[in-house]
Amino acid sequence: MWELIRLNKRKSMVLFVIMGIFLVVLGYVVGAAYAGPEAGWGGVAVALLIWGIWSLIGYFSGDKIILKMSGAKEVTPDVHPQLFNVVEEMKIASGLPVMPKVYIIDTPALNAFAIGRKPENCAIAVTAGLLARLNRDELQGVVAHETGHIHNRDVQFMTYAGIMLGAIIIISHIFLRSLWFGAGSNRRFRSKSGGKGGGQGQAIIMIVAIVFAILAPIAAQLMYFALSRKREYLADASAVRFTRYPEGLASALEKLANSKEDMPRVNKATAPMYIINPLKKKGRKVANLTSTHPPISERIKILRSIASGAGYNDYQTAFSKVTGKGGALVPPSALADKEKISIRDASPDADKPKAAKNEKRELGDIMRAVNEYVFMACVGCGLKMKIPPDFKKEKFDCPRCGTANKVPLAQMAAAGVILEGVQEAQKRSKEKEQVYHRKGTEWQSFRCKCGKTLQLSPYFSGSHMNCSNCGRSIRIEG
């Protein structure tokens, strides 16, 4: 897909230039509206300054800011080994140079997004609800879709376009809000010479500035959304190629479309990054004209129309059949590849739906693990307990049998120390490995010799794990 990558870079540059023109014109008319035509270039300078600052922040810290805004938290493989395994599979299938960082968003809603300036510095974030409700094939389809965005350089495009759009919206909002509060209104409409003609000319400039300040963000946003919708189709095509199983993504999209939960901390700038449109209006999805994504029903129908193979040609054929659009969605270089890619069989657990009770329990456990709860069983009766990270006591009595249980994390907090001897533990990280005897297959927590509390999820099936704090190898038995 080298041609698609090159085309995406070219489109990014075109959009960058067009939005730059919007930004410069907006700066000029706003400056002219405030202090006359001669001040228009001063407005351009201010607009470019805002855009420059915004670009620097977005380029160097944009991904971190968006992940923070979304409530995403980076996790280690022991929190959800299956997720890491799937991400690694798609990294290999797509040929990405590095393994994307993995984040979980603490919400029962179903969604996911990818972010990063380039493939060497990227991340995939999924919601806890997605992990609780999807089977492995469906999770693989979602991760493959987001990996497709990284592979096709879509995340780079979305970052740059979002930065430019953000600068246009900021300038427009500042100008319109200043009019609302009436700051300096007499000065704006007054000609420097005091003449009647000058006053009328300034009034016309003010009207033009108001109209452009309203229309510029709308026009830029519609252009941004239109290109975003096409990229969703291409990411779906990439997911089919990477997984060789169209039904996995189709089934996942169906579950995402039927989910009732709202995504928290979402705005118009971050919405295009998600696999489905997270914005809702009065309980219904945003209209297609302003939607960041193509209709989910259409995407599902395309995926389920693929029967002859999992190549780009097969997706293009299904896309043309369902949408009735004759133009090529996939670049010619990809369509020229006539290699036959067969569709694989479903995974063994694909037809085993999760019970609603189990989904709810798993969702709660994942959300607690992300928030660093301690999972432990009572030493007296075996009652499974979940201790919040801010629990301050060293011990607590089991509510069932009354046995006193020690809490490693609480004990550390009560002592008021921050992992004393961590540096010494790091030096001894290559010494004889630590052994933990697992008790059952539920969520469990235990403490490394360095003092770090570690989590074991029900999905963990390895024989070893490494402490994320000191790097010590820990053998898991039982």
Describe it for me?
The structure is a single chain. Helices cover 51% and strands 13% of the residues. The chain has 15 helices and 15 strands. The protein has 2 domains: 1-346, no CATH class; 358-477, no CATH class. Helix 1 (2-35) runs antiparallel to helix 8 (196-243), helix 5 crosses helix 9 and helix 6 (154-180) packs antiparallel against helix 8 (196-243). The two termini are 46 Å apart.
Strand content bin: 5-15%
Largest sheet: 4 strands, mixed
Can you tell me the number of structural domains? Answer: 2
Stretches with pLDDT under 50, minimum 5 residues: 183-193, 281-287, 410-430
Spatial strand sequence of the major β-sheet: 1-2-4-3
Counting H and I runs of at least 4 residues, what is the number of helices?
15
Attribute tags:
2 domains, 4-stranded mixed sheet, 3-stranded mixed sheet, 478 residues, alpha+beta, 15 helices
What topology does this entry show?
Layout: H1 2-35, H2 40-69, E1 72-74, H3 81-94, E2 101-105, E3 112-118, E4 121-127, H4 128-133, H5 136-151, H6 154-180, H7 185-188, H8 196-243, H9 246-258, E5 280-281, E6 284-285, H10 296-304, H11 312-323, H12 332-335, H13 356-370, E7 374-377, E8 384-387, E9 395-397, E10 404-406, H14 408-415, H15 422-427, E11 434-437, E12 444-447, E13 453-456, E14 464-466, E15 473-477
